[in-house]
Amino acid sequence: MNKTVMVIDDSASFRTVVKLALQKASYTVVEAGDGKEALAKLDGTLKVNLIVCDVNMPNMDGLTFLKQVKTQSAYKFVPVIMLTTESQDAKKAEGRAAGAKAWITKPFQPSQLVDAVNKLCV
Q1: What range(s) does the Response regulatory domain occupy (predicted)?
Q2: Checking DSSP bridges between strand 50-53 and strand 4-8, what pairing results, if any?
Q3: 65 pLDDT exceeds 90?
Q4: What is the 3-state secondary structure (H, E, C) of 41-105?
Q5: Is 110 helix (H, G, I), strand (E, B) or coil?
Q6: What is the C-alpha separation between 93 and 109, in angstroms, rounded?
Q7: Which of 8, 103, 107, 114 could lock onto 53 through a cystine, CB 3.0 to 4.6 A?
């Protein structure tokens, strides 16, 4: 059975790059353009094994999304990888405190992301 990864980023071209890397590694990918759209899709019926999320997005940023998704019983144990341009220690600490399992800074190597997904995907 294929594992499903949700990719949340406001850049459609960036989501495509991530999606292609993950599909090449045999993952099914569900996309969302921001945290608000992602929460709408994560209604308890969608099974995801891992979430890859940007920090800076319109409507709902990644850290707000992370805090909210971790309150939902269906998704509170789903690992979240933050994939962002943010590299400040304070942001990383905020992400860890909110439940992020990994923090990858853009630009990134697709193989680095796939390695992290392979390790964390439940």
Answers
A1: 4-121
A2: parallel
A3: yes
A4: HCCCCCCCCEEEECCCCCCCCHHHHHHHHCCCCCCCCCCEEEEECCCCHHHHHHHHHHCCCEEEE
A5: helix
A6: 23
A7: 8
Closest alpha carbon to 115 in 33, 8, 24, 48: 24
Helical (H) or strand (E) element with 13: helix 12-24
C-alpha Rg value of the chain to the nearest Å: 13
Cis ω for the linkage preceding 107 (within 30 of 0): yes
Cβ neighbours for 21, distance < 8 A, ≥ 6 positions apart:
110, 111, 113, 114
**What is the torsional sign of CA 92, 106, 81, 11?**
positive
Tokens encoding 74: 């269906």
Confidence of residue 2 (pLDDT cuts 50, 70, 90): confident
User: How many residues can be counted in the chain?
Assistant: 122
pLDDT tens digits, 75-84 = 999 999 999 9
Q: How far apart are CA 46 and CA 92, in angstroms?
A: 28
Give dist(CA 70, CA 26) in Å, integer.
26
